[in-house]
Design goal:
Layout (H helix, E strand, L loop, with lengths): L3 E4 L2 E4 L1 E2 L1 H18 L5 E5 L5 E5 L1 E5 L3 E7 L13 E9 L3 E6 L5 E2 L15 H17 L5 E7 L3 H5 L4 H4 L1 E2 L10 E2 L4 H17 L4 E5 L2 H9 L8 E3 L4 H11 L3 E7 H8 L13 H11 L4 H8 L4 H10 L3 H20 L3 E8 L3 E5 L3 H5 L8 H5 L8
Parallel strand pairs: 9-11, 14-15, 14-16, 16-17
Antiparallel strand pairs: 1-2, 3-13, 4-5, 6-7, 7-8, 8-11, 10-12, 17-18
C-alpha cells in the first residue's frame, strides 16, 4: 500500500488492519467458490474511504470450500501482526445470508465488556460488517441465493497473541480481528487511547465502581510489590492520564486512583495531563518552584534545576530538610489538577519513588486504595496527607 501521512515532520506509510485483511480474503474466497475461477488480487473499499488493491495468497480451491489469505501490512506502524497471513475459508451453508466465525489463531472472548459477547470469536463489529457486506456483494454479483459460512483464521495467531493485550483482556487462543477505519495510521495515539478504553470498559462491566490507574511498569510493580494489590485490578494508561480520567467519567466510574512515579506525576502538578516528553519536560522547574516556596535556598534550587532525575532532586530536598513541605505542595497541586479534569468524579493519587518509597498521597487516596483490599504499607501510615497550599 502506497499512501502516506506527515507526522512530526516525517513521511510515514499507511497500512491496513486485520479487519481489512479478513474482509478482502473473504471476498476473494467467496468469488472463487461461486465462480470456480481463481482470483489473484482483490479490491476492498475501507470505511475510511481508501480503496485497497491486495494480492491474494495461499489459494486452495475445492468444489465445496475455498480458502485464501491476505498478508497484513501495518505500514510504518509497529505491530506484532505485521506480515502475518489472515485466512478466510468460505463454504456453502444451508442457512441464508452470511455467517462469520473465527478459527485457528483467532481469540475467543471470555470476559464481559468487550466489543463482542462472551463466547464469540474476537472479530470486532466493524470487521464483521465489512466481511458480511463484501461477501454479500459477491453473492449478488453471482446471483447466488443460498447462504455462505466464513471462518477467519491466523495460523500464527496464538503465538502472536502472547505479545498483545489479549490475555489481559480475557481473549484467549489467538489475536483479535480489529479496525474501525480499515486503515492503520502510524504511531496513532488514538489507538492507544482506544486500548485504554477497552480495558476500562471491561473493568466497569465487571461491576467495579473505582478505577486503579498507573502510567506504566514502575507503577505496576509498585502496586504489586509495595502496596500488595492485585495487579489485574490496575489499568496501565501510559502518558494519557487526562484521557483515562475522561474515559472513567464517561463509563460511570465513581472515582479513580492514580498510582505513579514522581517523574510522571510531577508533571500533573504543572497541569500536564499528557506526560509525553514531546509536550515538554518541566519536572525540575515544577519541583524547584515548589521547593522555593517551601523555603529551599537559591543555591540548592539551582542544583535541583540541574538534576536529570527526580530521585536526585528528592535527595537535595532531603539534605535541605525540605522534602516534606515541598512534596506536600506538589501533591496538593496534583490533587487540584486531577480533580479539575475529573469533574464530579473522585480523583486521588499516590506518588512514589523507587528510591524513597511513597512521597505523597492526596487526602482520600488511602480510602480509595481499600477498594482493592486492605493496605498495610508502612508508607501509608507515615506519609502526611495533602493540605491546601496557602
Amino acid at each position: 500500500m502506497e499512501a502516506y501521512i506527515e507526522k512530526d515532520g516525517k513521511r510515514l506509510r499507511l497500512g491496513y488492519t486485520t479487519g481489512s485483511c479478513a474482509a478482502a480474503a473473504a471476498k476473494a474466497a467467496a468469488w472463487m467458490l461461486l465462480t470456480g475461477r481463481r482470483k489473484e488480487s482483490v479490491t476492498l473499499d475501507t470505511p475510511k474511504g481508501i480503496r485497497l488493491n491486495l494480492t491474494v495468497r495461499e489459494i486452495t480451491m475445492g468444489e465445496k470450500e475455498v480458502s485464501c489469505a491476505i498478508e497484513k501490512d501495518g505500514g510504518d506502524d509497529p505491530d506484532v501482526t505485521g506480515g502475518t497471513l489472515i485466512f478466510a475459508t468460505v463454504t456453502r451453508d444451508d442457512a441464508p445470508g452470511v455467517t462469520v466465525d473465527g478459527g485457528t489463531g483467532i481469540g475467543r472472548v471470555t470476559k464481559r465488556g468487550l466489543d463482542q459477547p462472551v463466547g464469540n470469536a474476537a472479530i470486532n463489529s466493524v470487521p464483521r460488517k465489512m466481511i458480511v457486506e463484501n461477501v454479500t456483494e459477491v453473492m449478488a454479483l453471482t446471483d447466488y441465493r443460498g447462504g455462505l459460512r466464513v471462518v477467519i483464521s491466523a495460523p500464527e495467531g496464538e503465538a502472536l497473541a502472547k505479545k498483545t493485550f489479549n490475555p489481559r483482556l480475557g481473549i484467549v487462543g489467538g489475536i483479535s480481528i480489529l479496525g474501525t477505519t480499515g486503515i492503520v495510521e502510524p504511531m496513532s495515539e488514538q489507538a492507544l487511547v482506544d486500548t485504554i478504553r477497552v480495558e476500562l470498559r471491561q473493568h466497569r462491566a465487571a461491576g467495579q465502581e473505582y478505577a486503579l490507574l498507573t502510567p506504566g511498569n514502575y507503577g505496576a510493580d509498585f502496586i504489586r510489590d509495595e502496596l500488595g494489590t492485585d495487579l489485574n485490578a490496575a489499568v496501565q494508561v501510559s502518558n494519557f492520564l487526562g484521557d483515562a480520567l475522561d474515559i472513567c467519567r464517561e463509563l460511570g466510574f465513581r472515582g479513580a486512583l492514580l498510582v505513579g512515579h514522581i517523574g510522571k506525576l510531577v508533571k500533573v502538578a504543572g497541569n500536564m495531563l499528557n506526560t509525553h516528553s514531546k509536550y515538554g519536560d518541566c519536572r525540575m522547574e515544577i519541583l524547584a518552584a515548589h521547593a522555593g516556596a517551601a523555603g529551599v535556598p537559591g543555591a540548592r534550587l539551582e542544583e535541583i534545576l540541574d538534576c536529570a532525575a527526580c530521585d536526585d532532586a528528592i535527595r537535595i530536598l532531603r539534605e535541605a530538610g525540605k522534602q516534606e513541605p515541598t512534596l506536600r505542595r506538589v501533591t496538593a497541586r496534583i490533587q487540584e489538577n486531577l480533580r479539575h479534569r475529573a469533574g464530579e468524579m473522585e480523583a486521588e493519587a499516590i506518588v512514589f519513588s523507587k528510591v524513597y518509597g511513597i512521597l505523597g498521597m492526596t487526602d482520600n487516596a488511602e480510602a480509595l486504595l481499600r477498594n482493592w483490599g486492605p493496605c498495610d504499607h508502612d508508607g501509608l501510615r507515615s506519609v502526611q496527607r495533602t493540605k491546601a497550599v496557602p
